[in-house]
Amino acid sequence: MKVKEVIEALKPYSDDPDMRRVIRMTWVYLANNARHLKRGFDTLLGTFEEVIGEKIMSTLVEMWKAEGITIGEAKGKAEGIAEGEARGRLLNTLEVRFNEVPQEVESTIRSMTDRIALESLLEHAKECKSLDEFAEAVR
Asked: Residue ranges of the domains in the chain?
């Protein structure tokens, strides 16, 4: 089986994380097209597991979960930073325009988690005529 020979030839490179990813993706491709293999599937699976040194499918699922968690954490962190910046710009604008921010308004702003709403309120803070007008919009 030529595929088996190719995979076995990759074994010396299986310690390299990038190469392991290539080997895993090769497995995914072949596993998704297994109907073309018809025979030798178990042998091929055994070869992949031997080359990588671990159970393929459980490792793939764990790898995909870890990648998803990492992406989710990065996205959440970026959104949190953007939200914090929008909140800071809004409070700063109110302080500059009106010299103070009532505790009730500040508490409401600090509890907000929607960056788009915070940015909308920032535009309103720049245009409103008074702090009372702004406070009404926040309620």
From this structure: 2-54, 74-138
